[in-house]
UniProtKB/TrEMBL annotation, chains A, B:
InterPro entries in alphabetical order: cNMP-bd_dom (IPR000595), cNMP-bd_dom_sf (IPR018490), HTH_CRP (IPR012318), RmlC-like_jellyroll (IPR014710), WH-like_DNA-bd_sf (IPR036388), WH_DNA-bd_sf (IPR036390)
UniProt-listed GO biological process terms: regulation of DNA-templated transcription
GO molecular function: DNA binding; kinase activity
PROSITE patterns with a match to the protein in the record: HTH_CRP_2
Residue span, HTH crp-type domain: 114-188
This protein's UniProt keywords: DNA-binding, Kinase, Transcription, Transcription regulation, Transferase
Pfam families listed in its UniProt record: cNMP_binding, HTH_Crp_2
UniProt xrefs under SMART domains: HTH_CRP
Protein name, per record: Catabolite gene activator and regulatory subunit of cAMP-dependent protein kinase
SUPFAM superfamilies, alphabetized: cAMP-binding domain-like (SSF51206), Winged helix' DNA-binding domain (SSF46785)
Length: 193, 193
């Protein structure tokens, strides 16, 4: 989503940190992180322990407790991730925030699609546009996400996601290129009509 | 959401404009609006004409085509509204954007509540906190929203919203103070546990 908009090009290397898959980024009220490479998700959970994904984020995205009123709030690495600390008072992350507003609106819009299979298809198209590459009329993207994470992002059950991904493949709407890579044609997406 | 954070206190009066209920704010790629008073919603619609609400906004909120990648995109006044044009290049609307990111996350979180009545209750609590006033342990708020707008905001049918509002009243979770005003106790809200 923010591929071409990395606001910080001259960050001190001492502010960089590498994180492993599933690791949680350190958090404090004054700390902001910006992703350099990798994929993460912000999450919360209910008192019954059910995880709710609040967003999926790639290079350029900014996080921090101060960007969310929702508690509990964690940022979990989906892939190995490099991020750097962002001084809370420095200005030039406006573009990232504009992108983030836009991104949240799109995810909110996808959540309003009632029919589960259509919602999943919209989400896959969104993923492809955000994190994939366009070749001819197809988007290629590496699906780093488990079916569980997809389910927690768009409010479905894991078994439903697994069943429907199979269905979309059979219908030719989604094509498996390798174990984790897919290609998809987002031509009919609701958000990109 | 942005009540105490109006970034602009010294805007030329020539930039102010009043809008009527249901009027649409003028739009262009370089134009941003900030609400001074009143309530608005950003909307899109499907090719079948079904309206999807993208967000509800009060004083301090900023809009514009450049904040959304979703097309079509309109901002419609729910109440009479006063707004002023914001120069696209001027800086100090960062706080408003931080609030907007947070706000979108909350709406997205509410959309993940599967059970329709619980989702409606979460949304009412959110409305109360955003636009209401707290007295003792109750939030008082004027529900300027039609049942149709509520339905279009949280992905339900209008008849479902009408039936469930009646149910919540009967259960004592929601209390009608006047024709449009309600009081509610958001103590058990998912977003504010």
């Amino acid at each position: 989503m923010l591929k071409s908009r990395l606001a910080y090009q001259t960050v001190s290397t001492s502010l960089y940190r590498d994180f492993r898959r599933r690791e949680t980024l350190p958090s404090s009220p004054d700390l902001l992180w910006q992703i350099e490479s990798g994929l993460a998700r912000s999450i919360t959970w209910t008192d019954k322990g059910k995880i709710v994904t609040l967003g999926l984020w790639g290079p350029g995205s900014i996080f921090g407790e101060s960007l969310s009123l929702i508690r509990p709030y964690d940022v979990e690495c989906i892939t190995p991730l490099t991020a750097f600390m962002l001084p809370r008072d420095s200005g030039p992350y406006l573009e990232s925030l504009l992108d983030r507003v836009s991104c949240m609106q799109q995810l909110y819009c996808i959540m309003q699609v009632k029919h589960a299979k259509s919602r999943l298809m919209e989400f896959l198209c969104w993923l492809a546009r955000q994190f994939g590459r366009l070749e001819a009329e197809w988007y290629y993207f590496d699906l780093h996400l488990s079916h569980q994470i997809i389910a927690e992002t768009i409010g479905l059950e894991r078994v439903t996601v697994t069943r429907m991904l199979g269905g979309l493949e059979q219908e030719g709407l989604l094509e498996r290129v390798s174990k984790t890579a897919f290609k998809i044609s987002p031509a009919k997406s609701f958000l990109n009509p």
